[in-house]
């Protein structure tokens, strides 16, 4: 019997920062076709959309996430009160941003704040190649149709970004970032100020598991995606 030898290509241990960035932003090192990705995303949405209709699912998810916040966040009532003065003051405070992100997760709309954070980081880019790499990553994750964490933008805004993505500038996402900021300020921020997560902080009460009621939103176009939040990679 003949024995066949199988040779494996040598791993490239000198992977460029650009490739590493793409692996991090997309959350997987595996390559897959656009068609396969869309089919997989659709299947996940269908499964999760059935699951989230069950009340016990919401209670467990909201409680665990709120409980996680209670263990990590140590904010004085004075600091929390400042967050209520304006949305900008909330986002400019490290703990405020973290607390608001946790709140958005209970509403399944954290893609909005993650997109905003990504844009803030993008605007600090100086190297031309880095601008191109990050712009493409942001576009594929948040902007393009069926993106894993697609944010809700009007057709004109998306069209302008799509046409300019091959030659991006530091201002390529300004209009989209402003739109998402306004949506969060007018919608989620208002509910955040009325939430137990926020009120417990302002009144100095121990954080407790809070079952927030989900309500319809104008935010996400492809919600309930099985994608792990990775806000930290933009900080």
Automatic annotation (TrEMBL):
GO terms for biological process: G protein-coupled receptor signaling pathway; negative regulation of signal transduction; regulation of G protein-coupled receptor signaling pathway. GO terms for molecular function: GTPase activator activity. It holds the Pfam family RGS. Keywords: Signal transduction inhibitor. GO terms for cellular component: cytoplasm. Coiled coil: none annotated. This is Regulator of G protein signaling 18. It comes from Neovison vison.
